[in-house]
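Our preliminary data section would be incomplete without showing what the modeling component actually yields. Below, a chain of 642 amino acids is followed by its predicted structure, encoded as C-alpha cells that our downstream tools consume directly.
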Amino acid sequence: MAKKKNGSPLDRWTVEQSTEAYGIRTWGAGYFDVSDAGDVVITPILGNKDVKVPIPDIIAGIKDRGLEMPVLLRIENILDSQISLLHESFRKAIASQGYQGEYRGVYPIKVNQQQQVLEEVTKFGSRYHHGLEAGSKAELIAALAMLRDPEALLICNGYKDRTFIDLGLYACKMGFKCFFVVEMPAELDLILERSRALGIKPLLGVRLKLSSKAGGHWVESGGDRSIFGLSTSQVVDVVDRLRKEDMLDCLRLLHYHLGSQIPNIRDIRSALLEATRFYAGLVDEGAAMGYLDLGGGLAVDYDGSHTNFTNSRNYSLEEYCTDVVEAVMATMDEREMPHPTIVTESGRALVAYYSVLLFNVLDVTKFEADPLPQSLAEDEPDVLHNMLAAAKSLSLRNVQECFNDALYYRDEARQLFKVGQITLRQRSRAEDMFWRIVQDIAKLSRDLKRVPHDLMDIDVALSDIYYCNFSVFQSVPDAWAIDQLFPVMPVHRLREEPKRLAVLADITCDCDGKIDRFIDPHGMGRALPLHDYRESEEYYLGVFLVGAYQETLGDLHNLLGDTNVVTVRVDPDGDYDFVREVEGDSVGDVLTYVEYDPKTLLASFRNTAERAVRRGRISANDRSEILRMFKSGMRGYTYFKD
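Predicted structure:
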C-alpha cells in the first residue's frame, strides 16, 4: 500500500468499503448495517433507523449468560416489522386502486415450525388477523393451540385422514375459519362423510394445478406435473359432486401454489391471470367463493442483486402487492363480480430476515508456500531443476506459459513419486515450488489487462480454509442441498481491510461440510473476503437470512444437534432485552434421537472402565475421573467448546 512521507496510508480502508464488499445494504432490507466502529448493527424498527444494536454487544451478552457459540440469534422486532410491512403494503395497494375486497395473510407452519416462531407470528399478526396454514396433523394441532383470532384463516393442506378432518370440522364449530383445501379427488368423499357424521358444515377450497410455471429452485411446484392439486376436469368433478350433495355453497376458496421463491414478477402475474379466470369460472358454476389464495412465492433477495436470479427477486414488496391487486381486480371488474379476499401464504419473506446464525472461527489453513530456493544441489532430480527454472523465468509476458509448465512439472513429480523415483522430501519441494509459482502468478495477474481463462479463478485456488464452529447440515442445510446462497460476513473488524480470501469449513467430518459459494457484487463468489485470523482473539462470522426452512430441515450429521437459540427484543430507545434463551442439544440429547439410552451407555462404559481396573491398566481413582469426564461429555454441548 502506498504511503505518505510521514508513514500514514494514502488510502485507508473504510466502513463504506466494507458495506459495499459484503453488500449488506442491498440484501439487508434495511434491517442490518455497519456502524462507524466497524460492527454489524441491527436496525429492526421500521421508520427509526437511529436505533442500532451492535451484534458484538449481543454476543458479549450471550457469553456473559454462559452460552457458547454457535448461536441462532432471533430479533423479534424484525418479524414484527415484516408482518406489518406485508399487510400495510397490501392495504396501501387496495386503497389506492379502490379494491373492494380485503387481504388476509397466512403463515405456512412448515417454513419454520419452532414453537417460539409460531407464538410470535400469531402474536405480531393478531392485529392484522394473520392466519396459519397446516399441512399435516401435527401442524394442525399446533395451529389450533396457537391461534386465538376467529377472523384469522386456518388453511388445511396436505393429506387429510379422519382425525385431521374431524379436528378441522370441530375448529369450524368453535368459530374458526378453517378451510379444507381439496388437493386430491378422494379427499372430498371423506370430508363429506365426516361432515355428515358430525353434523358440521365444512368450509372448502380446491387447489388448482395451473399450467403456468415459474423459474427458480421450486419450478416443479407449478404446472401440469405438480404432485399436488386438481386438474381442470377434477375441479369440475368437485363442483358436480358438491352440487349433487346440495353443498356448493361450501366451496369458498380457490388455491394454487406456484413455488416458494419466485424471482420474476412476470411469472407471478401470468399465474394470477390464469387463476382469476378459474375463480370466475367457479363463480359462474354457482360456487359461493369469496377467497383467492395465491399460496407462497414472495421471494427474498438473498444476494441483493434485485434481479430474476434464483436467489433474488426483480420486484419490490410494493410492486408485488400492487400487481396482485391489479390483476385480480381487472378480471373481476371485467366479469362484474365481487372482489374476493386475497390470501397469500408468504412464509419465507416473513421469517427469513429475523434469524442470524453466529459462530466463531476455530483455526485457519493458509496456502502459503516457502520462498523459492536460490539454487538446488546438482544431484536433485531434473524435475525440480525444471520447476525452479520455470519459476525464475516468470514475467508478465509469460504467465500462461509458466503456469502450464508448473502444472506439467508438478504432475511429473507426483508420477515419479508413485513409481519410487523421487523421495518424499523431493516431492514436498516440488509441491512447495509449484504453489510459490501459483502465488506469484496470482499477484502478476492483477496487473494484466486481459487475464487468461485458465487464470480467472487463481485467487480462489489459493484461498484459505477457515474452520468454523457450526454444522452446515444442521444450521444451513440448503447451502449444501440446493446451493442456496446466504449472505455471510464478519460481524466486527469492518474498519479493517479483509485481505484474505477463504472458504468456510464446518466441524463435521464431511467434505461437503463447507460453504464455498458466496454473494458477490459481480455475481457469485467462490471465496469470501475475511480478515487475518488472530489466535489471541475471537473472530465471529454471521450467516444472515436463515429464518426460513433451515431449522426445520437441519439434520444430525455427526450428531451435531440444535444450536443455542437467543431471542432479543429492541426497545424504541435503543436498549434491548434478552427475552428468551433455549439451550442447544446436549450430547445425551442427540444420542437419544438416534435410539441410544444414555443410562445404558453409562452403565456399559462403567463396566468397560472396571475391566480396565481389574487388568491393571488404570487405577480406581483413574476410573472415577474417567467416568466423571464421560458424564460431563454426555451433558455438554455438541459443538466445540474452548
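The two ends are 36 Å apart (CA to CA). Confidence is low (pLDDT under 50) at residues 1-10. Preliminary results of this kind motivate Aim 1 of the renewal.
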